[in-house]
């Protein structure tokens, strides 16, 4: 069994990614790690693996982003300085080169597996939608500070900075519309595009690889489902988000099929 990440293959033209769900750090690296479990958890994305189950094909990373961040460029995937990691001092001292090399081998293995999965899915089904699922903090002033300004912090931030927005507009707009009628904790979700985040390295990598065959949606859920300082979740809210996300899938399939049919018809119309 791969203890770095798990690929669960399945049908349907979707892939769900939970790249920051992991909390594990290799045993050999733990003596070098300066952060506590609680400090790591606060910047990780717990419960995103649960939400990834809304589609059959899933990739879940088990390693903590503080060992290796799969959503950053290769030369930035390890947080070397506090400036790389929200001001946090990640390491007591830098790990030996051999350990870093083993970590980067895991990074390369992950991207090789995602690339292979994507190519196989596209070859079989054509256009693929990727749900790149993350979470983010919204009480950065401290556990007793007011919540960050909701105007600048939507409940769901849809990052579309890497994709061809005009081409994939039907898919993006349908997701935002369908998600915007869902409720968590009795409150209708505030869903907006590219407010806090435009998507990370993975979405850029996917679009560069197969620009008209993959539509990656970088989904950042504000931590309204948990206490970001204690790490304690609200199980009901976690489940409500999973259900809300699952309810967007039928609409995404409709829009994906229309767009795929339109693309297939285009060469015939030109003839």
Write the layout of secondary structure elements.
Elements: E1 5-8, E2 14-18, H1 37-43, H2 48-51, E3 58-61, H3 97-125, E4 128-136, E5 156-159, H4 169-179, E6 183-184, E7 187-188, E8 191-193, H5 201-209, E9 214-222, H6 235-247, H7 249-270
Parallel strand pairs: 2-3, 2-4, 4-9, 5-8
Antiparallel strand pairs: 1-3, 5-9, 6-7
Helix pairs in contact: 4-7
- Helical content stands at 25-40%
Indicate the mean pLDDT: 96
The CATH topology corresponds to Aminopeptidase
> What's the SSE pattern?
EEHHEHEEHEEEHEHH
Distance between the termini: 51 Å
Classification by helices and strands: alpha/beta
Number of helices: 7
CATH architecture annotation name: 3-Layer(aba) Sandwich
Please tally the β strands and state the result.
9
Q: What is Rg?
A: 19 Å
